[in-house]
Amino acid sequence: MTTTPVLLAVVLSLVSALCYAAAAVIQERTAADTANLRGTLARGSWWGSVALNATGALLHVVALRYGPLTLVQPLGALSLVVAVPLGSLVTRRRTSGTQWRGMALTLLGLTVLLTLAASGGAPNDTLGSPEAFGLATAAVGVIAVLVSFASGRSALGGLAFAAASGIASGVGSTLAQKLAVGPELSWSVALVAVLTVAFAVAGLLLSQKAYQSGLGGPLALLTLVNPVTASAIGITLLGEGLQYGGTGTLFALAAAAAAARGVVLLSRPQLHDSHGSRDQLRGPRRTRPDAVPGLRPVRLFRLFRVSRSGAASTGRVHVRVVTVDIAGTSRAL
Question: Are 86 and 22 in contact (CB under 8 A)?
């Protein structure tokens, strides 16, 4: 990392990741405290998360102005690394050993990739308009295939939606770089701007669809597919490369594998903390009304249910008593 533009791109990417991580934690807390969309929209914290997301997106686009796709896009995974300890701090829960290992592997992999990719100055070449339109057309085709595959499937469907979201976001970042470098205004550039917004919105909607089947697997796949898509475009279409030739490529593949493993570990649902407690995912325990000091259940009524069974000669009678408490519990005796 020897040039000022690349250093600026790294700093902007780090601040962008911090904004995204803070927004994710705030959104999680807001969703836990509200029951519906109207309540969410009435919360000032939710609008704060929207502002953080917008700031993170703006900083990411500016970072693409000063750094290559192979450098800026993988650094987006840092938002997941930052969100884990930040969420633990806010919720006052311990960060598990699995999460620490995930953060260490992700940081190690990204550090190596950063060293190998940060070799040049600000990008001076972006996709031409024909290339951008061809890329958008190909991406729409792949996304359509993945969405079609996801229809009617649960677990695999969520992963397919996540892959589609990652591709859409990666292509959107590539098109955003074309706008950030500062092209002359024209109808083709305006169309690229429309496509950029369309892919960004599609990535958001597809990610929401992916999370309906669970968070861990789709989140990990989305986080990986996004930078892989953008980096592949940067290497194949923009001529972006890595330092040290073939040796650098091998180190980059190993670093990418380490970062991918770290992301998978970070995306796993944590069933217990470092002491083996499972209460965090179980949520608050239900407390019987008569176990709360000063609160005693009030019986509203008793219902006696009498029925005869068997032959008339046996004379057996079954009596069932149902007690209904004001706290909403019921017991059958």
Answer: yes
Question: pLDDT per residue over 154-193, tens digit each?
Answer: 668 888 998 999 999 999 999 998 888 866 778 888 999 9
State how far the Cα of 94 lies from the Cα of 238, in Å rounded to an integer: 44
What length is written for the chain? Answer: 333
Contacts of 172 (CB under 8 A, 6+ apart): 196, 199, 200, 202, 203
Write down the H helix ranges in 92-215.
97-117, 129-150, 155-180, 187-210
Higher pLDDT, 3 or 307: 3
Spatial distance between the Cα atoms of 31 and 181, rounded to a whole number of angstroms? 37
- In angstroms, the first-to-last Cα distance of the chain is 75
Three-state secondary structure call for residue 147: helix
pTM, 2 dp: 0.70
CB-based burial, 275-310: b 16+ in 10 Å, e otherwise: eeeeeeeeeeeeeeeeeeeeeebeeeeeeeeeeeee
The residues, ordered by sequence, that sit 6+ positions from 154 with a Cβ below 8 Å of its Cβ are 213
Which among 62, 75, 183 is positioned nearest to 122, based on CA atoms?
62
Are the C-beta atoms of 266 and 109 separated by less than 8 Å?
Answer: no
Residue whose tokens read 């000669």? 313
Q: Are 240 and 113 in contact (CB under 8 A)?
A: no
Question: CB-side exposure of 205: number of CA atoms within 13 Å?
Answer: 8
Close Cβ partners of 223 (under 8 Å, ≥ 6 residues apart) = 76, 77, 80, 166, 263, 267
